[in-house]
Structure formats: C-alpha cells, structure tokens
Amino acid sequence: MPRAPYGALALSIVLSLLGAVPAHAAPVDGAKVQWIDRTTVAWPKGLGDTGRPHHLVHDGGRFTLTLRPDRLAKYPGYDVYQVHARESEERTALTGALTAESDDGTTTGVQIAGVLDDLYAGPAAGARLGPVFRDGRPTLSVWAPTARAVALELDGGTVPMRRDAATGVWSATGPRSWTGKSYRYAVTVWVPALRKVVTNHVTDPYSTALTTDSARSVVTDLDDPALAPPGWRTLRKPKAVPLRNARIQELHVRDFSVADRTSRHPGQYLAFTDTSSAGMRHLRQLAASGTSYVHLLPVFDFATVPERRADQATPPCDLGSFPADSDKQQECVGRTAARDGYNWGYDPLHYTVPEGSYATDPEGPRRTREFRQMVQGLAGAGLRTVMDVVCNHTAASGQDDKSVLDRIVPGYYQRLLDDGTVATSTCCANTAPEHAMMGKLVVDSVVTWAKQYKVDGFRFDLMGHHPKANILAVRKALDALTPAKDGVDGKAVILYGEGWNFGEVANDARFVQATQKNMAGTGIATFSDRARDAVRGGGPFDADPRAQGFGSGLYTDPNGAPVNGSPQEQRARLLHDQDLIKVGLTGNLADFRFTDSTGHEVRGADVDYNGSPAGYAAAPGDALAYVDAHDNETLYDALAYKLPRSVTPADRARMQVVAMATAALSRGPALSQAGTDLLRSKSLDRNSYDSGDWFNAIHWDCRDGQGNGFGRGLPPAADNASKWPYARPLLADPSLRAGCGPREAASAAYRDLLRIRTTERAFDRGTVSFPLSGTGETPGVITMRVGDLMVVFNAAPDAQAQGVPALRGTGWALHPVQAAGADGVTKSASYDRGSGTFTVPGRTVAVFRCGG
User: Fold this and answer.
1) Are 368 and 374 in contact (CB under 8 A)?
2) How far is the C-alpha of 785 from the C-alpha of 777, rounded, in Å?
3) Is 498 noted as a catalytic residue in this protein?
4) How many C-alpha atoms does 583 have within 13 Å on its Cβ side?
5) N vs C: which end of the chain shows fewer Cβ within 10 Å?
6) Average pLDDT estimate for 660-682
7) Are 143 and 185 in contact (CB under 8 A)?
8) By percentage, how much of the chain surpasses pLDDT 90?
9) Exactly one of 274, 498, 577, 677 is catalytic; which is it?
10) Active site residue 596
11) pLDDT at residue number 852
12) CA dihedral 638, 642, 645, 651 (to 10 degrees)
C-alpha cells in the first residue's frame, strides 16, 4: 500500500509528458475565473477564501495573484486580482493546462478570451486570414495563438507552418500548384474539456471553397477569372434603393423552385437563371411593381444537409394519398428529415463559402460560379440580393465534428457563461462577436460577400446577440468599398437584423447590444414586432392561436374564441392595436406625435407594447415592417386560425392584402415572405426549418394542381402538436384552400399597392398624420394622410365612411393605379367633396390623391 501514491504520481507525470492531465492538476470545477487582460483576473466573490493566496497554475509553474481594491463595472460579482508574470511567460502558459487555485484547495478552470485579445488581437487585427494570393502564389493563414503546433495537410502531404509571435497567426506560402488542392489544418492544442493536448484536423474558418460535405477546404482564389460567369465583371445592378424605401422579398433557395415544374434547375442556385420559369416570372412582376431586393435565407455553408443529391433521402410515402388533416404526412417527412435535402440553414459551418447542396456539383469552386450566376439572374429580373448571415452561433462547439472554430482556439470563439459552459440562448452554441477575432471574422466575411459575390445587403440573425460596435464595424468596412477600388459601392449596401433582447446578453449585460433601441439612428434597421402583432393578433407563442388583431377580425368580425375576451375588451384592444399600427406606419418613430385612441396627445415612444415603447426609431430607416416571415405561421395560416370559419376565400384574400398593406405602405423598409401575396400556406406549420419540401415549397402557378400549400396534413408534431386540436378541423375544411381566383386577386391588389408606395414621393418625404385619431376613431379603420395622399385601411367587413371635415371642398380621387387596377371592389371606393368623406368597401385598402 505505501507504494500506491508513488505509482499514481508517476502515472500523472507520464500523462503530463504525453499531453494528458498535467502533474499538478487537481479536480477542476468548471471555468469560473476570467483572465481578462495580461494584468487582471476576475475571481468570483465567494469562490474560495479571499484571505488565502490565489494563483494561476500552468504547466511551467504558477503566477501569483494579489487582491486589488478596485472594482470592474463589467464584473459586479467578482473580485479583481493583479497577475504577476512576464508577458512571455503568459503567452507560454496559454498554450497548456491552466487552472485557478487558492491555498484553501479551491480549484477552477480559467476563461482566457480576454487575455488573448489583450495579447494578440491588436497586432492580428490587420492579418489577412485564409487563402491569400500574391502574384499567383497562395499563402494560407490561421489564427491559433494557443496552439503548440499547426501543420498544413495539403493534397495528401503535410507542410509545416510558421507562427508569428506577435499575432498568433500561423502561415505557409506555397507555389501556384497549390491552387485547387484540398487542405486542412492539423492543430495541436490543449483542450480544457478533455484536459489534454490533442491534434485536431480542421477545415479553415476562412475557407473560400470546400469539397463535398465540407470535408476539406480548397485553395481557391476568388479573383480567378475561371470562377466568373460571362458578364460578371461588368454586371450592372438595378439602381440602389435606400433602406428606408426598400421593399424586400424573403426567399429560401430550395422553396423557390423545388416544386416549380417549369424550372430546369429545381432547388438550385441556377433556378434564378431560368428566365421563363413560373417563379422567375413572378419575381419580375414584383420587381416591376416596386420590390427592390430578394432576401435569401442562409446560403453560406451549413451543417445539416447532405450536399450530393444522391445522398439525400426522400420521404418513403405517397404523401398526397393521405387526408388533408392526417398526421401521416408529418410522420413520414420526419423519418428522413435529418437526411433529406432540406433545412433553412441556420446552422453555420463555414461563413464565407456558398452552400454546396444548392450547386449542381458541391465539389470545389463550382458553387462559387453558380452563386454568382444566381446574383446575375436576380439582377436581370430587376432585383438586388440580400443575404441572411448567422454569426451569432455555430452548428456545434467543443470537439464535435461540426465544430470548426472551437477546435482551433478552444474557449475563445464561443460565448461562455460564468461557469465556463457554452451559452446556447440562440438555440445552439453561441459565438462571442464581442471577442476581437470573432468580431473580425464577422466583418471579414461580410466584406468578402459584398466584394466577391456582389451581395447588396445583409440581414443579421439575432443581431441583438452582437455588440452594437461589431455591427457598426461592419457598416464602416462596407462604407470603405468603392466601385473604382473594389468593384462595388459599399455605401449602397443595406443592413438590417433581428434586434431582439434576450439571453445572457440581455439589457446590455455584457456589452451594448445591437438591439432595437440601441440601433436607432445608425441607419441599420431592426425588425419591428409592434405592428406585426397588432395586425396579426396575439403573439407568436400564444397557446391559443385564435387571438385576433386588426387584420384578422378583432371586434369587427369576432371568431367567438374566449381568448379574445368580451366585446368591450376586444374594442379597447383593437383601438390600441390601431395606435401600434399608426406608429408602425410612420417608421416606428419614437418622437412622432399624434392623438391616441384614449384622446391623449402622445409620442410613438409613449405607446405601450408589452411594457416597452412602441416607437423606438430615430428615422424611418431604423425599423423594418413585416407581417410575416419564415419564422412562425405564414400570414395565410395565421388568418386561417383567427378569422371566423364563415369568411369566404375571396374575403380571406382581401384580409391578406389589408394585413400586407400595413407593412407595404409604411415609411420605413418592409419585408414580405415570398409567396405571401399568393396566399402561401405551410399547412399551419409554425416552425418549418426542417419540415422538408412537402410543407415548405412555394407553388407559384395555381393551375398546376398543387394548391397554395394548405391542407397538406397536420404540421410536424415537434413544434405544432399542441395546436393540432385547432388545426385539424381547419385543414379538413375544403373551403379554406385558396383557389386561383383569390390567389391571383390578392397578388394583383398587393402589386398595385407596391407600385403606389414606390412611385409616390409623398411616402418618402411627405408629412404623416392620422386626421381621425382619438376617441371617435372607427374600430377596424385607420385613415392616414401622407403629403397629398390619403390612405384608408378598412379591415372591417362592411363599407366604412371616413369624414374629414377639414377637407370639405377639396378634390380627391382614387389613385390612378387602383382606379385602373385589377380589383373591382377597390374601384368602388369614393370621395364626397361636399362633406370631405371617403367611403371604402369592406376589407379594402384604398389610396386617394389630392387634385385627382
């Protein structure tokens, strides 16, 4: 027995030499201590005895910590300690095992992102990472400051890489013959979670091309003429539209064409070059009416779809044979969901490479060429391209095969909670763009897409999880791009994102966030949920989906559901919803003044939205209006839940247009989900990210027999089962399946409104007012004046007269676009000069022009 301790010690020393648990190591409890710069450690209060000596223990010894009297506002629950060590010793210590220990036996791991930024980020800020070509010779560079060694695995061989001590960047330069070769990095690094040194074989975070299924990076020069389709260098884009006037179609590449029988490239980038397809014909119609941008859901390389079509599974059932309210469709789709060709793509793997499953061949750089052809195709249709970027999380972290960043610099790129675990508030492994090199990756990636792919705008997923400073850095970098130097005008590139405030960063807990209130005045827009909820009714997470709003019959066409309350409660809520919509129509301006439904003079910021100010924008370009997007039920499906069953298909189409108009005619930018003008349904699916083509595909041509997507079975159980009791009778009702007449009527009426919004300068420059606001306002009707235009939104089922006494004796007439438009009901809208009264049919939006 006396020999056992000696044997354990000997084993520990051997394992230490082999890169496993170091000889000094004791059991480690998470990573609760934060080394925030080269001289400072934040130590949680109550962790160990403050009166006992504290140390940072590393492979070569220990650094003494001494308690400082100051406090750090950013770390309110921590004591501050001084680190006593030479910088060279700190750099060495960061490449191996590191723990924080006190003499009372307390031991915990150490978070090192702060000190890495302090030591390396400044010099590394200007580093050009990934493949960089000079005179045809490539240099490959990767930032890996904690690595003990990095080797380049290139085309079956291994090339050593040189480390720059100041930047922590490893690089290797090769001959022209490296071009087109596949490669990975072999990164030898200490992994705290495993408590040993490992060699990770990892693709390049700055990859510009990949082999199939992202197995390896490919040495690719994006300036290579072979990657440019004919006409790429001289491509002329449609004229840039300022963000405040942008009208955007949100579109998923696969949804767009996979069910389009007229497309020669279903589900692919090249579908946007099929000029005679039904989908492209419809996009050209929208562009001619004023749509200016197509917003593509993620088209960077993502993790969950097999990229070869031959490897993609298909549901093993005749899905069309089941009843409209059956649970069999979703069950069958679910069997292959993890292996099919469908995903929204919010699971990033490589940020700066096009997704391979949308290319005709995912191997190598063809995806680059075809992505560019897609951009050309959209430009030829009169549309500029916006790209959805998802830099707030990665598909995986740690040692997972789908983890790239965390296997190169463990514990740096992902945001860690106070106990050292990876934050997952965004759904997945959160990134930390507040760390300098993650922030740099965001900026560098966006700039590459703008320069090399001529992307005209970027939508940031969960932008509130980014620091405001990071998004402003993106803006600054784009603004520096010029046509003469870079081939693009970076100042014309638009930026917007989801400014939601939640999770571990909420309320600026870790940094000033890129949230709705914080981005006001920056020229970078955030999605506004205020008018969205007021129009649709309720909220996206309601247990009972029948809660009504302005655009779904609240009070004026009650559905009888108890969730809506008494008639008096409905009336009061409807009038408040109308106040929210008015604020939205102004561009969500905080300082806009009007009389609210209670008769009080208020500003937009005084109107309540679930405890927050409805108005938060400083200018019309700060808030983006929408009533549906890829998240939550489509507008048609929301109305199916909320409108009374007795409402006819034709009137459902009219309510769809009324709802869409509240965004389309707003003063700020507006977004619509592709197909919404055609009454697109996902069979009531509220989260179709992995629901396959069956529930997601857009059916552009109503004559192809596929309907609008409604009644394709109960939506997938994982996110919808609790709604099945409400959904089943609706899906079984054939009267709710929109036919050609309502679909075509809705689209034509919507396009008329788009044409008015994008051709009338009053919406951009005119003064906005609501002349009938106040206690006497008609429930279900909003009357808005914008310069020399009067817009009446009548969501009520019956015709409504809106008398404006101040206009008596003045001449107004229905706008020429609507007077000559496709909707005969709208044409019956009238104005009486003697009384100054506008009369508008039920479920109609009519625009009148002064002097007509």
Assistant:
1) no
2) 15
3) yes
4) 36
5) N
6) 98
7) no
8) 94
9) 498
10) no
11) 56
12) -70
